[in-house]
Amino acid sequence: MEEDRQDVRSEINIMPPSSFPTTASDVFEMGKYKAALRRVEASATLPAAACAPADLPPKALLIAFPADAPGEFPVLVFLHGYLLYNSFYTQLIQHVSSHGFVVVAPQLYTVAGPDTTDEINSAAATTNWLPRGLAGLLPPQVRPNLAKLAVAGHSRGGKAAFALALGKSPTPLALPFSALLGIDPVDGMDKGKQTPPPVLTYVPRSFDLGMPVLVVGSGLGEVRKNPLFPACAPKGVNHADFFAECRPPACYFVAEKYGHLDMLDDETAGLRGKATYCLCKNGRAREPMRRFVAGVVVAFLRAHLEGDDSSLMGLRDGREATPVELQKVEFLP
């Protein structure tokens, strides 16, 4: 993919921090760190004559990290949705990173069929690469804390994240995850039409994950954009079904008037980028849903990786104002 083939250490953008001091209630605003982005080319995509560093990752990466202060930061592996580019999540992952997290978003594929085995395997290989390669791609003062490692995914990437956490990858994980986040996860076209390998079992509380789980759903995801296309997050294989199989501790949020792709960047380039506005039922704008998803991710990661649950409990109890109207909030303590 041409847009991802840039210098291994090329810093392409820095998003400024919030202009006011952040508090527990500011998860929906940019955090106190400047969030930088770096693209990293995969070893397999380099020309045969190129002299590739030995520690290049198995897949091209987009990495967001706090750029302006020294420290040790938890790490989130973020898996993109079906036929989407990791660059479509730039604003989302920079928002999360500005609150003190390193976000690693691999480009798992550019073309894929219904079987998700290869992308689950690629996500596992990328995770296993982190101990030997991630630190060398960050500034010396930014230290990734792989003892605080979480995995998240959107759409089919959400299914892949659950599959990875459930041990469905042919490649065994060398690192344990401490938390799992499904952003509008989807497991196929309908109940009985799951993409292989199926993740949903339709047995309540059957996921034996051994870690806290966040599930975020879109209220419009199960609504068709038009009669020619199926819903992007159909009933029977969507967020509600994933949460129904989660065991405590787990939390669940559904944004009522927003769609399956409303957490993407405002501008998504190319034909695929234009298609993101055409295939799924959308809300009035992407910015509110993107801020909500980023903010609830930050609140969840703070609670379960850093021991600060003030923002997450505020959301549970309705004490935190959110950028979107919530259709459902449920916690399994």
Could you explain how this protein is built, in words?
By secondary structure, this protein is an alpha/beta fold. Helix content is 22%, strand content 21%. The protein has helices at 90-97, 117-133, 156-165, 239-244, 270-275, 287-305, 310-316, and strands at residues 10-15, 35-40, 61-66, 71-79, 102-106, 142-154, 179-183, 213-218, 250-255, 326-332. A 10-stranded mixed β-sheet has the order 1-2-3-5-4-6-7-8-9-10, sandwiched between helices. The chain is globular, with a radius of gyration of 18 Å.
Largest sheet: 10 strands, mixed
Q: What form results from the Cα inertia axes? A: globular
- Order of strands across the biggest sheet? 1-2-3-5-4-6-7-8-9-10
> DSSP helix count?
7
Q: H/E series, N to C?
A: EEEEHEHEHEEHEHHHE
**What is the SS-derived class?**
alpha/beta
Oligomer category = single chain
Q: How many beta-strand segments?
A: 10
The fraction of residues in strands falls at 15-25%
The percent of residues in helical segments reads: 10-25%
What radius of gyration results from the CA coordinates?
Answer: 18 Å
End-to-end Cα distance, whole Å, is 43 Å
Average pLDDT works out at 91
Low-confidence spans: pLDDT under 50, at least 5 residues? 1-9, 19-24, 48-52
